[in-house]
Every structure is written in C-alpha cells, then in structure tokens.
Design goal:
Number of strands: 7
Helix content: under 10%
Largest sheet: 4 strands, antiparallel
Number of helices: 0
Radius of gyration: 13 Å
Strand order of the largest sheet: 1-6-3-4
Order of helices and strands: EEEEEEE
Structural class: mainly beta
Shape: elongated
Strand content: over 45%
Length: about 90
C-alpha cells in the first residue's frame, strides 16, 4: 500500500452453506480496512479496526443456494509505506 487511496481486490467463491474467514496482518506504518463484497459490489461484511498496524479479519457464511463469487477489498485508510500486508482466506 502506497497511498490513502490504494485498494486491492481478490476474488473467491463460496458454495451454499460454506463459510469463509479472512485474516489480514497490516504493517505498523499504515491503517487499512477490509470489506467483503458480493458479485454486484455490495458490502456483505467489513472490518474497520482503527490504528496503524491493527489486524483486520472477518467471517461470512453463504446461506443462499448455489455457488457465488465474492471479492475481498482491502483499502488503505491512512499512512503509507513500502511494507507489505498479508491476507489469508480459509474456507470450510
């Protein structure tokens, strides 16, 4: 993340009844917010912990029938720096 307007998107799918958990480790030089978006771009869940270096995480279970695509949106909120973040998606 290099600026306060930086956004990174990642796509994944969930089947009916399947859960997803996203954990993001954020470096201490900036603050970021985490959003889960559906295929239409509507926010389904969010994590907006305040403070530089605050980890972001969320969980979501698909209750509708069939499979669907979702997007993880990690946005820079404040600060900047060359350090990289890491996000892990776990599906069950």
């Amino acid at each position: 993340m290099q600026s306060s307007i930086d956004r990174d998107y990642f796509k994944f799918s969930l089947n009916s009844g399947q859960s997803g958990s996203i954990q993001c480790a954020i470096p201490s030089s900036y603050d970021a917010d985490l959003y889960l978006l559906d295929a239409n771009g509507s926010t389904q869940a969010r994590s907006v912990n305040n403070g530089a270096g605050a980890a972001e995480s969320l969980s979501f279970t698909r209750t509708a029938s069939g499979a669907a695509s979702y997007y993880v949106d990690l946005e820079a909120y404040s600060g900047s720096g060359p350090e990289t973040y890491t996000c892990t998606l776990t599906k069950s």
